[in-house]
Amino acid sequence: MWRRAAKSSSFLPLLLQLPKHDASLPQRFTTGFPFHAPFQEKGGISPKQVAPLITFVLGGPGSGKGTQCAKIVETFGFKHLSAGDLLRREMISDSEYGSSILNTISEGKIVPSEVTVKLILREMEASDNQKFLIDGFPRSEENRAAFEQIVGAEPRFVLFFDCPEEEMVKRVLSRNEGRIDDNIDTMRNRLKVFEALNLPVIDYYSKKGKLYRINAVGTVDEIFEQVRPVFEACEQEAK
Ligand SMILES: Nc1ncnc2c1ncn2[C@@H]1O[C@H](COP(=O)(O)OP(=O)(O)O)[C@@H](O)[C@H]1O
Ligand SMILES: O=c1ccn([C@@H]2O[C@H](COP(=O)(O)OP(=O)(O)O)[C@@H](O)[C@H]2O)c(=O)[nH]1
Ligand SMILES: [Mg+2]
User: Fold this and answer.
1) Segment among 24-28, 163-167, 214-218, 221-225 with least mean pLDDT
2) Domain count of the fold of the chain
3) Which of 166, 144, 165 has the alpha carbon at shortest distance from 211?
4) What CATH number is given to the structural domain containing 155?
5) What pLDDT does residue 2 have?
């Protein structure tokens, strides 16, 4: 089971002491690649951590993120964490955030970072897997910064499913999953939010050399043939 190096009540100050750059984090996020946590509890025995391998999966609404994630899980054994699914689950639970998540999703806006990061982190900590596909997050620069600060890790690489708007609209309107946000009015807002807030995140990772752009038009299998080599290369690097 992957664990953050410190507990939630006390980890923030510790993380704030870390250098901004991820040099203190493992240089290679590989399975079974142990590293000494940069922060150790005072007087404690040095804990051996296995760094998680994190991949962010980005793209507009309906670009095929969830569909491709299912294939990546099947082929490469990642744990799939869809931020949207986690929020929808939280929304229908008794959570204090339920009604505000409902309103935010209905309007196609972005849920506050601390809520989403908390849900993602909870799943990561509860998982036995060390390889995480984080789907549909970060959706804004603020999301990205919150994840880095709270989780204390960066993605090894980022996939971007690049899809024309008219194709995304067509797919979302025929998705048929009964989602409150799969209607034309909310979809218009989601596309605006994607362009204004999510594209800058994609640009950020492109400039860092971590972005893999995938042409999201074609059959599911054709698209997966672009995705596959990215993960194969990652596996090779881990050997
Ligand atoms: N390559 C594809 N061609 C046509 N339809 C697709 C393709 N990939 C996914 N879909 C369909 O489009 C809809 C949106 O896909 P989904 O994976 O949910 O996208 P996202 O998670 O990016 O919103 C779903 O109904 C899905 O079955
Ligand atoms: O990190 C996230 C992920 C999702 N959402 C909200 O959840 C909705 C649905 O997200 P999801 O990723 O499920 O949609 P998709 O892009 O897959 O259609 C978004 O429009 C947002 O309102 C959010 O606020 N933060
Ligand atoms: Mg999705």
Assistant:
1) 24-28
2) 1
3) 144
4) 3.40.50.300
5) 65
Domain holding 84, by residue range, is: 56-238
Q: Is 116 in the pocket of ligand 2 (CB under 6 A)?
A: yes
Alpha carbon separation from 209 to 16, 82, 135 (Å, rounded): 25, 24, 19
Q: How far is the CA of 43 from the centre of ligand 1 (A)?
A: 51
How does the average pLDDT of the chain come out, rounded? 84
5 pLDDT more than 90: no
Q: Which two tokens stand for residue 151?
A: 């989780």
Q: Whose CA is nearest to atom 10 of ligand 2?
A: 84
- Ligand 1 neighbour 62 (Cβ under 6 A): yes
- Asked if residue 125 is part of any domain, the answer here is yes
Does ligand 2 come within 6 angstroms of the Cβ of 108? Answer: yes
What pTM does this model have?
0.86
Taking the centre of ligand 2 as the mean of its atom positions, its distance from the CA of residue 234, in whole angstroms, is: 27
Which helix (H) or strand (E) covers residue 199, if one does? helix 199-207
Whether 233 has a pLDDT exceeding 90, the answer reads yes
